[in-house]
Amino acid sequence: MNPESKNASGRVVTKIEFQVKRTDRRSIFLDGEYTFSISPETYNLFPISKGQILTDKQIMVIQNHEQFEKAKNLALNYIALRMRSNKEVRTYLKRKNIPINVIERVIQYCSEKKYLDDYTFAEAFTRDQLNLNKAGVFKIRSSLRNKGVSAEIIDSVVEELINKDEQLDLAVKLGKRKLRSLTKDTKKKQKIYRFLFQKGFTIEVVNEALKILI
């Protein structure tokens, strides 16, 4: 450490240099020692310059914001793969050892920017379950609950997108397909019942489908 760089009220920025591998990031040296690195977003908010004196509080604020930027980028990359619920993003960031207070800042940011919206997520998820996985309403409700979607949103989305007649048509279609694989089976009714129930259809829909199928 250079004795001339010591300052009783804080630490002196003695060098700022771009990193070799991550060329958009800057390494910050205080009192002649590497101390931390920052992203372009953090630098734009806190334009540190050589010779500047940083107090411990200023250093903490800068590092806290850098932690937020890191967590935000993790969340955005995670969301970019597919739509996510609030709970999914929270769980993901916890696994990355992001502090709870930073996670909540990221959730708030993503919600304000409309990157996260549990209602929109629930609508898209329900459509996928209906069209791609041919799931029944029970299974859809259970999956949404597991993803942290509120009961109020689930009820609203189910009422909006799912009706009994369409569920019955789907159950009959799936049941017919299953029946073709049970041509020599003597327990067709029980197996079709179990199959449709496991797909998440209500008991009422399953029973009505069985009347049509068998």
Label the CATH architecture of the largest domain: Orthogonal Bundle
Query: What percent of residues adopt helix (DSSP H or I)?
Result: 55-70%
CATH superfamily of the largest domain: Winged helix-like DNA-binding domain superfamily/Winged helix DNA-binding domain
Number of domains: 4
Text of the CATH class of the largest domain = Mainly Alpha
CATH fold field value of the largest domain: Arc Repressor Mutant, subunit A
User: Percent of residues in beta strands?
Assistant: 5-15%
Give the N-to-C terminal Cα separation: 86 Å
- CA-based shape: rod-shaped
Provide a count of the helices: 10
Largest sheet: 5 strands, antiparallel
Radius of gyration: 28 Å
Q: Poorly predicted ranges (pLDDT <50, ≥5 residues)?
A: 1-6
SSE order in H/E notation? EEEEHEHHHHHHHHH
- For the secondary structure, the number of strands is 5
Helix/strand class: alpha+beta
Mean pLDDT figure? 93
